[in-house]
Amino acid sequence: MLRASTSRLSQVIVIVALSVILMGMPATAKSTPLTFWVIESFTPTKDAAIYKAVAEFNKANPDIEVRVEPIPAASLREKYVNAVFGGGGPDIAALDTAWMAEFAQMGLVKDISGKFSTVRGRFFEGPVETAEYRGKYYAVPWYTNNVALFYNKDALASVGYAKPPATWSEFRSMAEALKKKNMYALAFAHDDFAIFMWLPFLYQAGADLVNKELNGPGFDNAEGREAWNLITDMYAKGYMPESIKSVNSWSEVYAPFIQGKAAFVITGDWGIMPIANAKPGFEWSIAPLPAHRKAATVIGGYNLAMSKNCRDVDAAWRFFDYLTKPENLWILQSYNRIPAVAAVLETEYATSDPLMSVFFQQSKVGVARPRVPEYETIMVTLGEAFDTVIFGVSTPEAALKKAAAEVKNILK
Length: 412
What we know:
Number of helices: 17
Order of helices and strands: HEHEHEHHHEEEHHEHHHEHEEHHEHEHH
Distance between the termini: 96 Å
Shape: globular
Structural class: alpha/beta
Largest sheet: 10 strands, mixed
CATH architecture of the largest domain: 3-Layer(aba) Sandwich
Number of domains: 2
CATH class of the largest domain: Alpha Beta
Strand content: 15-25%
Number of strands: 12
């Protein structure tokens, strides 16, 4: 009996001792969860590169757990605004560069200027500008794009040109030569769609949509009028097809080019596949946009931003740094996107495809659209001005002057 009691007493002592030891041990640290919103084109399958990248990051950073949440591109803006205003939404998100100024003004993204300053030199200058609003930085450039000149080699050869236009002057000369052969020069669009395609010429002339003080138009000057007249003249002189008056999509912009009716079209790398798949009955290629006072193109793309509700800024920054390291260019390469990281130009990826290589090279002269919350309204205003010209309601000069006055009021 004594032995049994002693045995039971020993068991109790062991259990109590273990309990004391366990109670004194620190609890296992929990991972910081970060919800990452990204457009659905990045998540076609569970084997997509973004999932692999996140898994790799999470494994290397066990104190952080990034969770990918795909969002349809068409509804991302609205969902983000509503969710973040409501106190929820993602911790981090890939957002269109055109939204950054507006979101910064609305307080929907965090100011990360201090952290960004440590990696600023990693990126092309144009994408860096898209992350800035009134001297502060609210995002990290992720991937970029731009527009170039798609051209019909056979059409140019038929009018005596072996190369695409390198200057505005050559562009005009080729347009006139093509017209004499009963062929249009440029497939284009109308409303603010047309203005997006016109912006590179505005930059090349030395002007901008908004002045440096961000309080008035930047195109109400000799340079702006020169760029405006370049494109309105293209229509007035019959170098553009009448179909531009009803264009509402990229496929409609491409149609005259694919059909061999227009020798040029201005679009981005997203135009390569649909044009190639249409199998035009002629040889075509891509060239940098014809330049004027300087070479320039308009850029788009997406930036990485922290929402105002981000739960851990330091953890989010570590993820941003990981996604944009030169050694991780493979992530965007798998989607055939152009990283905003300048080191990409030193890789085979940037030169292996002769069509894509044009967009890579133009990344060096890409210009960010104005960082003002009223950007979209300004684009619509100029689009309406362009339409009054092509529909015969106004002269180019009067239309531009009226648009400038309206933009001045918008920016007040």
